Amino acid sequence: MNIHTLARRRRLAWLAAGLLAAGNSPVGAQTAPASNGRALAATCSACHGTDGKALAGSGMVALARLPKEQVTAQLRAFRDGSRPSTVMQQIAKGYSEAQIDAIAAYFATVR
């Protein structure tokens, strides 16, 4: 892992911590309707690329086209702490079940 990756992860951790400390979950997660998967998924673009299409060589998982069940399971694992991470555990804690389902459904349809 290079210095740029570490710096990026540190900035993301501070961003997530700031959002949670302010009483907010990822942008729009509490206020957006659960059926609006695209709006909820937009919060993922900073790391996972626009519409979940991660840039080659970025080291991030591309979320586009992943099966809904896979995305749902991973977000729940981050949320309950069974899958460790630097940032995703804090982000996933802000999503309801319906919001996780909406995000996963959206990424499953992106082509």
Can you put this structure into words, describing what you see?
The chain has 111 residues and is mainly alpha-helical. It contains 6 helices and no strands. The protein has helices at residues 3-21, 37-41, 45-48, 68-80, 88-92, 97-109. The longest helix is centred in the N-terminal third of the chain and has 19 residues, at 3-21. The N and C termini lie far apart (30 Å).
Outline of the structure:
The chain has 111 residues and is mainly α.
Unreliable stretches covering 5 or more consecutive residues: 19-25, 27-32
User: Looking at the chains present, what oligomeric state does this protein adopt?
Assistant: single chain
* Class per helix and strand makeup: mainly alpha
The Cα radius of gyration reads 13 Å
What's the total count of β strands? 0
Shape field: globular
Counted by DSSP, the helix tally is 6
> If you average the pLDDT, what whole number results?
81
Q: Report strand %.
A: under 5%
Largest sheet: none
